[in-house]
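#data-curation
PF: Archiving a pair of folding outputs for the training set. Convention for this channel: one message per protein, sequence first, structure tokens after, nothing in between. First:
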Amino acid sequence: MISGTLHYVTGYTGFDATHPELQEGHFLALHAEDDGASSIAVRPLGSTADPVELDPDGLYILHIVNSEGIEYYSVVDGVTYMNVYKFDGLVMEPKEED
């Protein structure tokens, strides 16, 4: 389970600088280390998109819209392992009105 509080963010271009609709909302920064894994990838639960491989530092920013968790894939010695991490412990603060 992943837990914590996500603040509502506006004007964040680090996720997608070309699409304004993706520059606000709740963002989750993940850092993963898996000794022995040749690659690590994640995708939101329920997504049909291909998993996104983490950068060499093991970092990934996820724009949380309607996901209940993530699928976490690691490849060790040519074998792919998948774990599910639920967002049951996440609190998403509402957008503050002006």
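PF: Second:
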Amino acid sequence: MDLFWGEDGRLRSGWRFLLSVFVFVFINGFAVDLANSLAGPSDRKFELFYRPLLMLLLVVAFSGMLKVLDRVEGNPLPAMGLVKKRFLPDVLLGMGLGAGMVALSVLPIALAYHLGFHAVISRHSLKLVCAVLMILATGAMAEEVAFRGYPFQRLIDAVGAALAIGLSSALFGFVHLRNPHASAFSLINTVAIGIVLAIAYLRTRALWVPWGLHFAWNLTLGVLLGLPVSGISQFAVVIRGTASGPVWLTGGTYGIEGGAAGTLGIVAGLGLVGFGLRSRSRVAPSESEAEKDLTGSERDGIQVNQGSGAPGARYPKY
């Protein structure tokens, strides 16, 4: 048995996964450096350049890998999970799940302790909302493409769905350790929500439900409630919230993702996605199955043949 090449003449899935990880690291470093050079001293401008740039570069790079290494003919986006079919229903479903998980998480804080809000409405704050929405939408998509897109799909092919979920979710959790005020509790919760997002992909064989869930979680928490999102408070541009209570519950300055309140919402989401979301495939998704999500001319047109930043530079918080 050849270590690198399969019987179909393609590079084995495990090597394609490792290569995709190196591609992500390189692109992330490039996006960080470019965003730092364009943004000047503004952290929010940095995020506004960095998140969309990272998303676009990852989609282009992984599309190229699908064409060259996976031999996908035609449009490679469906094979990555960016299918046209069910786009809007899946996004709305994901957003409903994400918003509901946050609502359930903050409920015990509101009932047992205190959840307060202060509105800051001005022309400037409303302009900032547009920037924040762009940051959150593209940031969530960049993370979904990186952690539930091409690398995750090749990892499934290499080691099976269960182990792939565990490994990708662990990586998802560890990259968030660079965020301000991260802790062991926040790591566990982030790994858990990574599992929820991975299962959402496996159930639907598309990135729209996990993206909608991811985006709505951050939007509800950071913009609508004005609370920290993974240790980041800059999204509270109109509503500024405060959550009072013990740190083990509220997560303190990291936010609910670092406390038991977040765990409650994540466990509920795991139950809903794991048992309430109907599977669209009996087997783990692979590049060949992406064709099943296509219809008509789309199916006819697609065949599957089976940096480092400068000193002092800002680094993204996930």
